């Protein structure tokens, strides 16, 4: 018999927005994008030019997804980390463990234990 236990991510994400402090923390990505777009608008070629890559949101894959409309202001960006392990060498049982990392939070918050969701 196989079991798969999971906690729905939706209610966990909603709970992050329940306080003014939590809602402000969840605006990290939006504030970062606003700043990058304002700097690009001031350039003659209107391109986003980064001197340093400090975050996942500075990457070309993310910026392209935003440009194509796949990621919008009213959405959230999550990262799924998953790994499996065989529990016993002589048995074919295995265990899969996964966590959700909320990337809308600043890097100093997104990897804290309280913001890593099962």
Strand proportion: 15-25%
Cα-atom radius of gyration: 18 Å
What structural class do the secondary elements suggest?
alpha+beta
For the secondary structure, the number of strands is 3
Low-confidence stretches: none
SSE series: HHHHEEHE
* First-last Cα distance: 22 Å
Q: What sort of overall outline do the alpha carbons produce when their principal axes are compared?
A: elongated
Helix content: 25-40%
Spatial arrangement of strands, main beta sheet: 1-2-3
Number of helices: 5
Q: Summarize the main sheet.
A: 3 strands, antiparallel
Please tell me the overall pLDDT: 90
Put the structure in a nutshell.
The protein has 118 residues and is an alpha+beta fold. It contains five helices and three strands; from the N terminus they run H-H-H-H-E-E-H-E.
Keywords summarizing the entry:
elongated, 118 residues, three-stranded antiparallel sheet, alpha+beta, 3 strands, 5 helices
Structure description:
By secondary structure, the chain is of the alpha+beta class. The chain contains 5 helices and 3 strands. A 3-stranded antiparallel β-sheet has the order 1-2-3. A hairpin with a 7-residue loop joins strand 1 (78-86) and strand 2 (94-102).
Secondary-structure map with pairings?
Blueprint: H1 9-16, H2 20-25, H3 28-41, H4 60-68, E1 78-86, E2 94-102, H5 107-110, E3 116-117
Antiparallel strand pairs: 1-2, 2-3
């Amino acid at each position: 018999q196989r079991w798969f236990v999971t906690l729905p991510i939706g209610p966990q994400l909603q709970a992050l927005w329940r306080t003014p402090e939590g809602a402000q923390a969840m605006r990290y990505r939006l504030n970062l994008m606003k700043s990058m777009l304002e700097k690009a608008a001031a350039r003659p070629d209107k391109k986003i030019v980064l001197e340093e890559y400090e975050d996942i949101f500075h990457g070309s894959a993310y910026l392209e997804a935003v440009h194509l409309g796949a990621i919008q202001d009213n959405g959230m960006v999550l990262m799924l980390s998953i790994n499996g392990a065989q529990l016993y060498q002589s048995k074919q049982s295995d265990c899969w463990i996964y966590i959700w990392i909320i990337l809308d939070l600043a890097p100093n918050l997104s990897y804290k234990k309280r913001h890593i969701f099962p």
